[in-house]
Amino acid sequence: IPLLLLLKHSKTQQLNPPPGPPKLPIIGNMHQLGHSRHRSLSNLSKKYGPAMVLQLGRVPFLVVSSAETAKEVLKTQDLNFCTRPAVLTLKRLSYDFLDVAFSPHSEYWREMRKIFALELMGAKRVHSFGPIRGEEVANMVDSISKSCSSPMRPVNLTEELFSLTARVICRTAFGKSYHGKEFDRGKFLEGVYEAMAIMGSFSASDFFPSSWAASAVDVITGLRGRLERCFLSFDKFYQRVIDEHLERAESKGEHGQEEDIIDVLVGIMKRDESSPIHITADHIKALLMNIFMAGMSTSAVAMVWTMTELARKPELMKKAQDEIRGKVGNKGKVEESDLEQLLYLKMVVKESLRLHPPGALLPPRECVNHCKVNGYDISPGTRVVVNVWAIGTNPEHWENPEEFWPERFENSSIDYRGQHFELLPFGAGRRICPGITMGMLNVELAIANLLYCFEWKLPSGMNVEDIDMEEGTGIALRKKSPLFLVPSKFNCSSMGVS
Ligand code: HEM
């Protein structure tokens, strides 16, 4: 035994772990995370480097803060880092990891991801949901137009944009005719926010795995109870919607409407004998959880930050409006087919995603095999967090990184689809977001119509410096306080096409 201990000791001595701040007993570096995790971690990385290690409770975390190191982890060694840790809160909400987003890397995940990326989020399917996006954006424009009748009345744009994405995603997932009973629209949205708050909250069991004391802490803080209530209300609701879709499929076969996401999944469930995975109601529920949690607030958060940055720079807003109005002319609305030619608008959205990535820290990955990153040894079981916000504002990659300056992309090929590691709002590698096309269509169409249909001013007495840029807490990096702006209707009929 002493010989074995000696061997083990000499082996650990040879390891070269990444640098990191000194840690306290038991909690490690937890006290250094602060209110704004991406900013605290970014500050620490300025001292300890782009690959630094932190100990949170019993769990070691590798924090990545430069494009080069992100490329190493997300591309060169992706296979070693593309599993997700088995986090307890996510286990319940993902039906024991039957989903895509939190399921560990395995043959099962590959099959489910294929279904998600090709059958639910493939280009053809996403475009088939175009009429839903168009109608719901028009409803938002109508709702805002009503406010224009009282001059200088501010509109809560945060509320309008969250409600827009909720309507689009609900209709895409559940279909046009669906009206909830247990979970009406307002309550459903509350449920989604509660689930996201739970996912973003501190669970002692995740940092002290297999500890009875940590489980007790989660019971005492009420986290376990909240999680169970949240899970049960979603479960009951999803079951009813799935049953309705099954009945509809039995009774009518073809019902003549455009297929919604549950129709597609119910179809796979029925034809599925030869497929490697037998899809059940629980698989459908787990995927619905992903669609609501990963798809809804990310798009809305991106829209709010884009309008906030434009409100702070009226000259850029005017430039974007001139482009849109010049290209779209007097059609009365921007359609999805117009978006391709709105190059400045695309740069504006890209710049907003650089400065305010909704996923400021990528969802954690876990190292599977011992390996080296930047010459440092990384042990299996180490969780890996990529600080997308720190990379997007790293002065080594970006000129004047704090400035909102869409023109920086004018002669640049940098794009957000996982090939340019200085810009990672959708992540990269095998785990890259499979909802990019749908997310970007939601964001660009909404912003284009807001800019085309209205002139926007700040509420009276307010200056651009007064716009509150504080970030909220939670799983998506949202603007903390709602954005209020004053709209006035723009006369689109006066426009010609340039
Ligand atoms: C602007 C909108 C969106 C943003 C900024 C965004 C961002 C992200 C990010 C950063 C990740 C993690 C990627 C990684 O770990 O490397 C992710 C994963 C994911 N996203 Fe999105 N997303 C958006 C829209 C959507 C939409 C509309 C859907 C589907 C309806 C979706 C579904 C997913 C799923 C299922 C995953 C997990 C992928 C996996 O682990 O294999 N996202 N997203």
Compose a concise summary of this entry.
The chain has 498 residues and is an alpha+beta fold. Helices cover 51% and strands 7% of the residues.
Relevant terms:
498 residues; alpha+beta; Cytochrome p450; 4-stranded mixed β-sheet; 3-stranded antiparallel β-sheet; globular; binds protoporphyrin IX containing FE
Walk me through this protein's architecture.
Its cofactor is heme. This is Cytochrome P450. GO terms for molecular function: heme binding; iron ion binding; monooxygenase activity; oxidoreductase activity, acting on paired donors, with incorporation or reduction of molecular oxygen. Keywords: Heme, Iron, Membrane, Metal-binding, Monooxygenase, Oxidoreductase, Signal, Transmembrane, Transmembrane helix. The chain crosses the membrane at residues 287-308. The protein has 498 residues and is of the alpha+beta class. The chain has one domain: Cytochrome p450. It contains 19 helices and 9 strands. It has helices spanning 2-14, 37-48, 67-76, 78-81, 88-93, 107-120, 123-128, 130-148, 157-174, 185-200, 204-207, 212-220, 223-252, 261-270, 281-312, 314-328, 343-355, 388-392, 436-453; strands spanning 51-56, 59-64, 155-156, 365-366, 371-373, 376-378, 383-386, 454-457, 484-489. The strands form 3 sheets. It has a 4-stranded mixed β-sheet. Helix 8 (130-148) packs antiparallel against helix 9, helix 10 packs across helix 13 (223-252) and helix 16 runs antiparallel to helix 17 (343-355). The chain is globular. 42% of the residues are buried. The structure holds protoporphyrin IX containing FE (HEM).
